[in-house]
Amino acid sequence: MAVITSRFADGLAVGPNLVESAESAIRQAVEGLSGPADLVCFFICGEDPDDVARAGQRAMQLVPEAAVIGCSATGVIGDAQGVELSPAVSAWAASLGEARVTTFALESLRAEDRFVVIGLPERDPDDRVAIMLADPYTFPTDAFIEHSGEVLGALPIIGGLANGLRGRGSVRLFADGEVYDEGAIGVLLSGPIQISTVVSQGCRPIGPTMIVTAAEDNLLLELAGQPALARLEDIVSSLDEDDRELVASGLQIGVAMDEYAERHERGDFLIRGVLGIDPEREAVAIGDVVEVGRTVRFQVRDAETADEDLYELLDAHVEGGGRVDGALLFSCNGRGSAMFGTPDHDALALRDTLGPIGIAGFFAAGEVGPVGGVNHVHGFTASVLVFSSMS
User: How far apart are CA 194 and CA 312, in angstroms?
Assistant: First the structure.
């Protein structure tokens, strides 16, 4: 008779008593493992930050032998479902064998005209991935991630921006027995462990690819030798009514990650928002600084496109070989019910494609994950950390 072993498991508990929910979710996850837990992650949605802190402290007490991280959120994911804006706790536990697990807590200090981040763990050549949970109100996540390659090299960073139902001041972060109300926390995984990342930005290109021929800060002044605004107007005028509505509800732009690719299609871009236009300069303002010479393409996003994008990326990942054992999911709080009409969409997509494995996560205020081998902070994205069997 075959023996089924579980290296990853998840748990979910819904109810107003967050301490009881934390106990239930943690126990579900830990008891679902075939061996001892080496890493436990948990996520808490609750109205009162003090209640969230107490639940987090209790969660950490239940698994003193494991490395433990967690955060508050406006929604949690576990047991193949999502729970938004309601008291709930999800948990995820992993038996990682000989892999090394190092927790960390980051603090940002202002030094003259810049921020200095302290608390990064020492790097080893066999470091595989960093999972990071950050308070978006107190930690300069965008700047840190943008410059992470200078300090951490090619180390992938994946995770999300935590939040609380009361916004600023209600975020709580948890790491190895400590409760933090600012900064960022996380865990570094090293050694013999098979991981990969999937980042679904959920957009569809419209119009042609174009070279940026003039730009200033975050303003696109010229695209393919013509005023950027004129280029955009030409593209929008050629769309059907449905796509024009998508443009009106939130136009995006994709920056090609591989300038030398023969074609640039969906999934080949880093997606950034279009913030507005400057009619006097005939310019388009975007949520990033793009250098002259880069290739860009305007994009739209809707539920159908986001659904197709996530399933296609996950299916391609499965076809790549290797048995998937577990996953952590960081899904934008603008997805879920707001985009798909149900909070369960992303969790079910992972269950449908990766199988009945241990999957948990939370609805984030921004998602962190690599695109084209470079770490970025995203919006409206599902960032997934996948754990597979060692080949």
Answer: 21
The whole-angstrom separation of Cα 317 and Cα 385 is: 12
Confidence of residue 239 (pLDDT cuts 50, 70, 90): very high
- Which residue in this structure is represented by tokens 């926390």? 185
How would residue 271 be classed by pLDDT, with cut points 50, 70 and 90?
Answer: very high
The amino acid present at 146, given as its one-letter code, is E
**Alpha-carbon separation of residue 339 from 49, 129, 212, 268, 278 (angstroms):** 27, 29, 31, 22, 29
Give the span between the Cα atoms of 33 and 1, in whole angstroms: 19
Predicted model pTM: 0.92
Q: How far from chain centre, in Å, is Cα 284?
A: 27
Cα torsion 198, 201, 206, 211 to 10°: value is -80
Phi first, then psi, for residue 189 (nearest 5°) are -105, 130
- Cα 218 to Cα 228: distance, rounded to the nearest angstrom: 12
Kindly provide the b/e burial profile for residues 113-139, where b requires at least 16 CB atoms within 10 angstroms of the residue's own CB: eeeebeebeeeeeebbbbbbbbbbbbb
Residue type, 336: G
Mean pLDDT across 104-128: 88
Q: What is the DSSP letter of 95?
A: -
